[in-house]
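Dear support,

I submitted the protein below through the web form. The confirmation email said the job was done, but the results page showed an empty box. After a refresh the structure appeared. I'm attaching both so you can tell me whether what I see now is the final result or a partial one.
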Amino acid sequence: MSEKVAEIGAGTMGSGIALVAVEAGYEVVLIDTDRKFIDRGIGTIKKFLGRKVAKGSLTQEQLKDIERRLSGSTDMKSAVKGAVMVIEAVFEKLELKQDVFRKLDEYCPRQVVLASNTSTLSISTIALATGNPARVIGTHFFSPVPLMRLVEVIRGKETSDAVTEKAMEI
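What the results page shows now:
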């Protein structure tokens, strides 16, 4: 069984991040507040994968395997269970991100890496919403995620070496 990555936010960035994670072999759950956002995000992922099948760079068997490892949920608490890493890609609003991280801190065991896709906000400030800022890191994916395959990893003041290493591995 593959490791699980949870992606919060099913918009353009979130669905792109979910796509590269599921293609890399991870079990991925795409989380958002409304099922219609999740369905749209998964639809975008399936459309991209369908083009790869049409071009011959992905087989039907590989597509089915990827689709088996991809799911969506509106229930953050249950969706993050078993995840080794949770990546947040919600709007660039500090209060919203801190609210997400406050919940993640409660829902996830201490060894789970909590990452933000922020491009403008301080990772250290986001991490203040948790009781364990050592496990918070920035993973700024570049757009369009499936084509750029470039991730800027940003440590906060208290991000641990182990969290940095795990984020880099994933």
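Response: this is the final, complete result; the empty box was a page-load delay. The first helix runs from residue 12 to 23.
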